[in-house]
Hints:
This protein is an alpha+beta fold and 336 residues long. The protein is built from 9 helices and 14 strands.
Amino acid sequence: MRDGVPIYPGSFEVISWAIARAFANIALVKYWGKREGAENLPATASISLAIDALKTVCKIERLDSGQDEIFINGAMAVGATSVRISKYLDFWRAAKLIDGHFLVTSENNFPTGAGLASSASGFAALAVALAAFSERKIAVKELSRLARVGSGSSARSITGGLSALPIGKNPSAKLMLDAESVPFGMVVMTVESAPKKIPSGQGMEMSRNSSPYYNTWLKQAQADYEAMTQAIRTMDFAKIGEIAESNALVMHTCMIAGRPPLLYWSGKTIEIIKAVWKWRSEGLQVYFTVDAGPNVILIARREDLNEVSRVAESMPGIQRIILGLPAGGSEILMRE
């Protein structure tokens, strides 16, 4: 700590490798839309919960060669993924935070690119591992900004727990409530695990450029952000769930109304949404949210998570049920 601010230690000695871990975060108020300009500036403020069952472990090793090598889930990164990560490493080098080239090995324990925030945990883990190689000590606030350049949502994985990412000139995530104090968790219902055909960044541009509801979405997202902030302050779980559901539905309406339309849902997504409404009418206090993909995330109090998981497992056609508790921020696991 320095002046009460957590610090990611820089390397005053030369290290050869570092391993970092970060957890994916699921947004209760969605980030969907970028402002024009560089550095992934969000057009909407967002609030999310980091989940312990969805994690990325990233190992960075210094190389003597003149180029980076990147592996994701055991396979060499190619195409847009390789270009994106290479540009991010170049960004750190251009900022004179690191030098040299690296072997990047990143592993997710959940589907990648399927609308479960894998880029958030991926770039957060990468940023924390890179910080270990920096000669300059990096405070959490700055690291959140650096992570945001790679993936907007990764700024919130740096802080973990219930975190908010406001809009602004150069925003960083702020911790609203630490993981241990959050009285609810999530159950992920995976219906498709293949990477989505249209990545979130491209989808955001489609909505911004063609959806007649995009400006309406921006206004509603800000209203939801303010309402969710108040609901979390008073810990009104019913209000938290209601806002999360409505916010997700408005975001997807904005996508679907674009020209061409962008529909991430499958038929099973809609079946689950209807089932959640039915379960709630029968007395089970459970809510849903859906990120940019077909998979549905259920929100329930900690004491109800096992029952929600049991009910979810009774639905046919579900690939996997993942019960997740609130998780902390990103961290270095080992370095040498």
